[in-house]
Automatic annotation (TrEMBL):
Key words of the record: Coiled coil
One Pfam family it belongs to: Porin_O_P
Annotated SUPFAM superfamilies: Porins
Gene3D superfamilies listed in its UniProt record: Porin
Protein name per Swiss-Prot or TrEMBL: Porin
Coiled-coil features, chain-numbered ranges: 25-52
Segments of this protein annotated with the region Disordered: 1-23
Length: 378
């Protein structure tokens, strides 16, 4: 039979059918729907990210304390990292998550862990918080260490509010210029050395304040108990742990140099110190501080602070050989100069002069302290 004919190489092909207008419209609609879904997902992701905020700061220091006496004993010269804070906050219309840690050479510790409910219908003016948080007492205790003018809190606050934080529940309320914070706490603070409360006693702490922009202040109260045993006690006894306080801050803009502020606080209390420490069980104490801050332009400031603390409410000062008694009253004068390098870096130089009340042959120790601190925050 004759061979089958080969197709011609240049034979014309049958053209494919072009999609109809309806088919093209349907395909375009599918593409638009896919883009809309992607856009919605992106918006949801961005909305969630807007609710999450990270912040933190690092305080690097150099400190020099003079020799405690003429023999050259005591004193120090050292570098250190005082605070290394990292905080995450996630806020919605009804709730807030807040977690803060402190990473320093001694280790990483939990500072704050707060779960907050904003009471519906109050526009976040009323909230309930459960977790680990700062005690709602006074001004300097709750104030952030990144905002404070001096490297450390005043002596009275360090003694009567040693931990600044505790585990408990707190109610916060705001109405116009009024502020209220009241909470129930374990009472021993986070520096007690335990992760759980060591007794069933709970402490009630509250602060009622006002804020009129140029002047603010408030009064604070604390009532609770601390289980402990004095040398004369056969068994542990629930000693009253109480505090009362008043604070005031005033801001003026009258000098051409810059703004001026005056801040002061008074605190008196009974039973203080570390948990289960019988040294200051049922012991009354009081103290106060006065702080004057003068801004110089936008980037500089100078401040002076006088604070005093009496560990035993007027008890006669004593001497331990040539050294003042451990519970003698102490007055401290401090000076600080600050400079801001933009919004994120602050450098301060502080000189503090503690004056321990001395009697007889006991002399005030040479414990003046110089602190150079650089703080970076974001």
């Amino acid at each position: 039979p004759p061979p089958a004919s080969e197709p011609r190489a240049n034979a014309p092909t049958v053209p494919e059918r072009s999609p109809s207008i309806d088919e093209r419209l349907t395909a375009d609609e599918h593409r638009v729907e896919a883009l809309e879904e992607q856009n919605t997902e992106t918006k949801n992701d961005l909305s969630a990210l807007k609710k999450l905020r990270f912040s933190g700061y690092i305080q690097g220091r150099y400190q020099y304390q003079q020799d405690l006496d003429d023999s050259g004993a005591g004193g120090y010269s050292r570098f250190g990292v005082r605070r290394g804070r990292l905080k995450a906050t996630y806020t919605t219309d009804w709730s807030q998550f807040m977690l803060q840690i402190d990473a320093v050479p001694a280790g990483v510790t939990l500072r704050d862990a707060e779960a907050t409910l904003f009471v519906p219908g109050t526009k976040q003016q009323l909230s309930v918080t459960l977790g680990q948080m700062k005690w709602p007492f006074g001004y300097e205790g709750p104030q952030s260490s990144s905002d404070r003018e001096f490297p450390e809190r005043s002596r009275v606050v360090r003694n009567l509010l040693p931990s600044e934080r505790d585990r408990g529940a707190k109610l916060n309320g705001r109405y116009k210029f009024l502020r209220l914070a009241v909470g129930i706490f374990d009472g021993n603070g986070t520096d007690s050395g335990t992760t759980q409360d060591n007794d069933k006693e709970k402490d009630l702490i509250a602060h009622l304040g006002f804020d009129l922009k140029w002047i603010a202040g408030g009064i604070s109260g604390w009532y609770g108990h601390d289980l402990g045993r004095l040398p004369t006690d056969t068994f542990r006894h629930a000693y009253e742990r109480t505090r009362i306080g008043a604070d005031l801050q005033a801001y003026f803009d009258v000098l051409p140099l810059g703004g001026t502020s005056i801040k002061g606080e008074f605190i008196a209390g009974r039973t203080y110190g570390a948990a289960n420490n019988a040294t200051h069980l049922d012991v009354p104490a009081h103290g106060w501080y006065l702080l004057l801050v003068q801004n110089i332009g936008l980037n500089d400031a100078v401040a002076v602070r006088y604070d005093t603390f009496d560990p035993r409410n007027g008890q006669t000062d004593v001497a331990a050989g040539e050294v003042p008694g451990a519970d003698n009253a102490v007055d401290t004068v401090g000076f600080v100069v600050q400079h801001h390098f933009g919004e994120n870096l602050k450098v301060s130089a502080t000189y503090e002069i503690p004056m321990t009340h001395a009697v007889a042959q006991a002399l005030d120790p040479h414990d003046n302290l110089f602190t150079l601190q650089m703080q970076a925050r974001f």
